[in-house]
C-alpha cells in the first residue's frame, strides 16, 4: 500500500472554501482574528519545527526530557496490542520516544491538519518502525468523530503533546477532551503535554526569539492567504506582536498593521487602522492543579503528572 493511498480524510481537514470563509469571518469581526490552525501549511509546519529548537523556546526541550525520563512508566499505561493516537502529530518527534519504548503498541495513528507534512513524516515512520502499522489521518481534530477502521477493535491510548491544548480557549479544551474520550473509548489513557505558568519574561522570550523565526511563523499566515486566496497583504506593513496577558494566563500573538491600509482578498476589501491587530493565537498556560480541574470537568481523571517546573506531562484516564 502506498503512503499516499494510506492517507485518509474521514472528515475533510480543510478546503479552500472553508479557509476563505474563515478568513473573511475573522477579518470582518471586531477585533480582527484568524484561527491558528491555518498556520500549518507545509511552510508553517517547517517553521514550527524550527521554533522547537530555538534556545528561547523551552517547551519542546522540557517535554522531550520528561518523556525520555519517564517513557517506561508512560509506556506501562498502554494496554497490550494497542494503538497510539496522536492529535496534532507534527514531526512525531515525541511519539518516537514512546514508540521505541512501548512494546505493547501495534499501531500508531498520527492525526494532523497539515497533510503534506504528515505524508512526508509517514514515509520516515514506516522506514523506522517497520513492526508497527502506521496509519496517518489528515483531519481537523476538533471535528473528528471516529478513528480508522484498522484500529476499530484495538484498545487505544491517546497522545496530545506540545501544549497544543493551550491553543484552545479553556471551554474548547474541555470540548476537545470530551470528544477525545468518546473517540478513544471507555478506560482509555491520554497523555497530555501542558505548558506551565511561569515568570512572564521567560514566556515573553519564548514567543519573541532573537532570530525572528516566531515572527516568520506568524507572518506566514498572510503569505498563505496571499497565495491561496489571491490576497495582496504587504508583508512589510505588518509586524509580529507577542506578549503575556497575565490576567488571562495566556501568551497572545497578533499581527499589527504598521499603517492605515486596505487589503484585497478576492472580491473583499479589508480596512486596517494604523496599529490595528489581527489576533492570531492564544497559548494558555496552566498550573498542574488548574489543568487537572479542567480534565476532571471534561470526563478524565488525573492518574499521574510529571513536571520539571517549566512544563507538565499528565496521564489521564476516562472517568
Ligand atoms: N505534537 C507536535 C506538534 C505540535 S504543533 C509537538 O508536540 O511538537 C501543533 C500541531 O497540531 C501541528 O502539527 C499542526 O499542524 C496540528 N494542528 C493544529 N491545529 C489542528 C487541528 N485543528 N486539527 C489537526 N491538527 C492540528
Ligand atoms: C503548537 N503550539 C502549542 C505552539 C505554542 O507554543 O502555542 C505554537 C507556537 N506559537 C508560537 N510559537 C509556537
Could you explain the architecture of this structure?
- The chain is α/β, with parallel strands linked by helices and 319 residues long.
- It is built from ten helices and 14 strands.
- The strands form three sheets. Strands 2, 3, 4, 5, 6, 7, 13 and 14 form an eight-stranded mixed beta sheet that branches. A four-stranded mixed beta sheet has the order 1-12-9-8. The protein has a two-stranded antiparallel ribbon with strand order 10-11.
- Helix 3 runs antiparallel to helix 9 and helix 4 (58-75) runs parallel beside helix 5 (93-101).
- Residues 1-11 have low confidence and may be disordered.
- The chain binds S-adenosyl-L-homocysteine and N,N-dimethyl-L-histidine.
- The site of N,N-dimethyl-L-histidine has 11 residues, from helix 9 and strand 12.
Amino acid at each position: 500500500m502506498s503512503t499516499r493511498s494510506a492517507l485518509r480524510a474521514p472528515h475533510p481537514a480543510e478546503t479552500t472554501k472553508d479557509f476563505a470563509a474563515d478568513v473573511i469571518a475573522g477579518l470582518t469581526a471586531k477585533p480582527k482574528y484568524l484561527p491558528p490552525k491555518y498556520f500549518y501549511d507545509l511552510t508553517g509546519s517547517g517553521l514550527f519545527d524550527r521554533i522547537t529548537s530555538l534556545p528561547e523556546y523551552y517547551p519542546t526541550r522540557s517535554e522531550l526530557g520528561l518523556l525520555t525520563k519517564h517513557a517506561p512508566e508512560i509506556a506501562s499505561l498502554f494496554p497490550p496490542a494497542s494503538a497510539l493516537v496522536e492529535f496534532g502529530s507534527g514531526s512525531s518527534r515525541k511519539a518516537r520516544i514512546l514508540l521505541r519504548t512501548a512494546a505493547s503498541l501495534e499501531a500508531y495513528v498520527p492525526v494532523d491538519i497539515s497533510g503534506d507534512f504528515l505524508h512526508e513524516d509517514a514515509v520516515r515512520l514506516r522506514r523506522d518502525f517497520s513492526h508497527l502499522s502506521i496509519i496517518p489521518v489528515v483531519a481537523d481534530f476538533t471535528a473528528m468523530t471516529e478513528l480508522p477502521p484498522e484500529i476499530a477493535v484495538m484498545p487505544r491510548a491517546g497522545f496530545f503533546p506540545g501544549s497544543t491544548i493551550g491553543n484552545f480557549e479553556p471551554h474548547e479544551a474541555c470540548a476537545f477532551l470530551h470528544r477525545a474520550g468518546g473517540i478513544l473509548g471507555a478506560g482509555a489513557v491520554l497523555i497530555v503535554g501542558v505548558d506551565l505558568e511561569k515568570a512572564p519574561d521567560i514566556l515573553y522570550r519564548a514567543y519573541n526569539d532573537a532570530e525572528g523565526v516566531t515572527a516568520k511563523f506568524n507572518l506566514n499566515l498572510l503569505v498563505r492567504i496571499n497565495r491561496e486566496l489571491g490576497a495582496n497583504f504587504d508583508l512589510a506593513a505588518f509586524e509580529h506582536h507577542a506578549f503575556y496577558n497575565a490576567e488571562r494566563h495566556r501568551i497572545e500573538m497578533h499581527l499589527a498593521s504598521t499603517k492605515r491600509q486596505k487589503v484585497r482578498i478576492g472580491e473583499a476589501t479589508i480596512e486596517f487602522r494604523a496599529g490595528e491587530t489581527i489576533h492570531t493565537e492564544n497559548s494558555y498556560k496552566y498550573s498542574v492543579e488548574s489543568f487537572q480541574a479542567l480534565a476532571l470537568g471534561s470526563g478524565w481523571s488525573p492518574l499521574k503528572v510529571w513536571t520539571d517546573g517549566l512544563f507538565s506531562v499528565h496521564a489521564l484516564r476516562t472517568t
